[in-house]
Structure formats: C-alpha cells, structure tokens
Design brief:
Elements (H helix, E strand, L loop, with lengths): L7 E6 L5 H12 L2 E3 L15 H17 L4 E4 L2 H14 L5 H13 L8 E6 L2 H7 L13 H15 L5 E5 L4 H15 L1
Parallel strand pairs: 1-3, 1-4, 2-3, 4-5
Helix pairs in contact: 3-4, 3-6
Length: 190
C-alpha cells in the first residue's frame, strides 16, 4: 500500500452497488479497519426506527473511525442516513429529513461529526441494484423499490456534485480496478 497515512473513507451508493464487497476486499488486502453498515440496528437483537438512536449510532461509527490506528472504511455514513430520509419524504411516509440535516449541522459545529478524507460513491442504476440483489419490490420502500432508489440516485448525485473529496466509481468496474483508483486518490491526499 505504500506510505498512506491513516485516512477515513466513507462508502456510499445504492444497495448492491458493491460497497460491502469493496470494504471486505480492502480489509483483507490492505488491513483497513471496517465499520459496518448501519441498518437501524443498535445490536443484532435490537432493531429500532427511533431516528435519534439511528443518528447517534451513525455518530458512533465516525468516532470509531477517528479512534482507529488504521485507515478506516465506514460502510454507509451520514449521506446514506440523510438519503434515506429524503427519499422517504419523497415517497410520502416519513418527515425526518430536515430534522436530521439540523442534527448533522449541530454535530459538525460541536466537532462530533466531520467530512471524511474521501467519499467513494459507487454509482449504479436502480435497475442494476434490483437485478444484482433480487428482493421483493416494495413501491414505498427506499431501498427495495425502483422509485425510492431513483430518488436516492438523484440525492447522491446532488449531494456529491459540489464536494472535492469524492471519487465517483462506475459500479461495473472490477473490484481490483476500484481499489487501485481509491489507493491512487489516497496517495494524492498524502
């Protein structure tokens, strides 16, 4: 891996874009620290839809990355949390987006949350997501319905467009090509 100092990377993208597979590859090949995706679970047995608890769990992921001695990969971070709420509002079944934006802004002001060194946005189309991970399509679900994922893609494209700490990855690339792109970008940031 060369002389890359400790960095924090956040992987983002639609379901089945390859985030977790990429994280596992980087952990195995380069011994990065992996911080797993939040699924609204505070533990394996305790599933919650309490938005404040989910937000606090997300903050905890960023703190774990900060305190790790290794380069850390956060599998889905703040953008995914905001994306889910944005899309749920667009689909008409939740109204938490602006509240979460406020929580994020407050956490940044307090130093509890930060921009990572690098966002890796793995872009795929909603159709590809649904084909890669076959699941029942639920029209009003953000991650399992075409309409929700179309909103998510629009959100991600808009969220990442003004940021300079983003590498946009074509979700059809081979995992070794993706890892090479990430490592090159991390070397640039050293």
């Amino acid at each position: 891996m060369g002389n890359i100092t400790k960095k924090i990377i956040v992987l983002e993208g639609l379901p089945a874009s390859g985030k977790t597979t990429l994280a596992n590859y980087l952990v195995q090949k380069y011994q990065f620290n992996k911080i797993n995706e939040s699924l609204g679970r505070l533990s394996e047995k305790n599933i919650t839809d309490d938005q404040k608890e989910i937000f606090l769990e997300t903050l905890e992921k960023y703190q774990k990355a900060t305190h790790s001695a290794k380069t850390s990969i956060i599998d889905r971070g703040v953008p995914s949390m905001l994306c889910w709420d944005y899309c749920a509002e667009k689909l008409g079944y939740a109204k938490n987006y602006q509240e979460k934006v406020t929580w994020v802004e407050e956490a940044i002001k307090k130093g509890e949350l930060y921009e990572p060194d690098l966002y890796v946005y793995i872009g795929i189309d909603p159709e590809d997501s649904l084909n890669r991970r076959v699941r029942p399509q639920i029209d009003i679900d953000v991650w399992s319905g075409y309409k929700g994922m179309a909103y998510a893609k629009l959100f991600y494209d808009d969220y990442f467009s003004p940021k300079s700490n983003v590498v946009n990855i074509d979700g059809k690339l081979d995992i070794e090509q993706v890892a090479k792109i990430i490592l090159e970008r991390l070397h640039e940031k050293n």
